[in-house]
Amino acid sequence: MAEHDDEALNSSSAVEKHGTAHGTIASPGTAVVPADPFENPGEPPHRARRTDVDPKKQRLAERQVATFFYLSIVGSVLAIAAYVAFPIKEDDFSTVRLANLWLGLSITLALLALGLGAVYWSKSLVVDREITEMRHSTRGTDATRAKAVEAFQLADKESGFSRRKLIRNSMIGALAAFPLPGIVLVRDLAPAADPNELLRHTMWAKGTRLTKDPTGLPIKASDVTIGSVFHVIPDGMLDKEDMLEEKAKAAVLLMRLDPNDLHPAKGQENWGYDGIVAYSKICTHVGCPVALYEQQTHHLLCPCHQSTFDVANNCEVIFGPAARPLPQLPIAIDDDGYLVAQSDFHEPVGPSFWERER
């Protein structure tokens, strides 16, 4: 403390001790400008690589880079071969693991070899001299822009892209081959049959009973009370091999309203039974399940994008992005009192874009 106290008593400002850059004494509070700023140390000395000084090492590196690119081509071709050689069988889950294993290994080889080739090229053959570039405004002058073109040309010259034909051609081949597995795999996702035709028809047919989802129990008209709602699937769907695909088209919501609240469209007066109506569960926006029913307002809500349909008025769209009403399934009752379909839907179910002719 004593030292600090003495120092405080005898202290003076830095300006009073050292003055300004010109040697004069400045008043307290004036900023001190140092007279001897440190010098710019500049860039460190450039260290040449072996490929910079030895032509043999340079040619070896060029062949190594091309080898990586050729390996990438091999990986892309193997991915296509694996996709064909190891098909997935629905009744054998081990085929899924086998197909994924070989597809993953092949695509990994294609990606890894392509990346390693690019990195090794830049590390061993591209000119690596250090430079310092001053920051300029966002858009340069015409002269600066011309210099940019010159820089690209210089980069091409230093990288040897135009000159090193082996590397250039092998890299172009690798880049061209790499998307091929993706094209083959994605193309095979489309159904073999015409999707426009497949999506126009569902399992519903004349006389098909309406059953509860997921139990498959048939529904009697007497089971449906006013205000209730049933999630419905066609009878026999649970036994189908492609059950999920069929359900994605044929799922239905069944509701019962006071017949006085219903306002059926012209020609559809007999599509319901004593206030019981059935509409597609597949939203006409992007195909989400319309699963929320409001008893008091008779509104159906799609939880994905809030499209709202009015059941009392033919499921017309009253809010949201859906472009058209939910298709109605014509229903009746059979001799045993069970609800049955009169026919399939009279219009395509699901998103509106499936209606478009190709």
TrEMBL record:
Family stated for the protein in its record: Belongs to the Rieske iron-sulfur protein family.
TM region(s), chain numbering: 65-86, 98-121
Pfam families recorded: QcrA_N (PF19297), Rieske (PF00355)
Start and end residues of each stretch annotated as Disordered: 1-58
Record's GO cellular component terms: plasma membrane
Signal peptide as annotated in the record: none
Gene3D superfamilies reported in the protein's UniProt record: Rieske [2Fe-2S] iron-sulphur domain
Keyword field contains Cell membrane: yes
Purpose: Iron-sulfur subunit of the cytochrome bc1 complex, an essential component of the respiratory electron transport chain required for ATP synthesis. The bc1 complex catalyzes the oxidation of menaquinol and the reduction of cytochrome c in the respiratory chain. The bc1 complex operates through a Q-cycle mechanism that couples electron transfer to generation of the proton gradient that drives ATP synthesis.
UniProt membrane topology term: Multi-pass membrane protein
Descriptive protein name: Cytochrome bc1 complex Rieske iron-sulfur subunit
Domain annotation Rieske: ranges: 271-340
Localization, UniProt: Cell membrane
Entry keyword Transmembrane helix: yes
Molecular-function GO terms, alphabetical: 2 iron, 2 sulfur cluster binding; metal ion binding; monooxygenase activity; oxidoreductase activity, acting on paired donors, with incorporation or reduction of molecular oxygen
Basic and acidic residues: compositionally biased ranges: 44-58
Keywords recorded for this protein, A-Z: 2Fe-2S, Cell membrane, Disulfide bond, Electron transport, Iron, Iron-sulfur, Membrane, Metal-binding, Oxidoreductase, Respiratory chain, Transmembrane, Transmembrane helix, Transport
Organism for this UniProt entry: Curtobacterium luteum
Source superkingdom: Bacteria
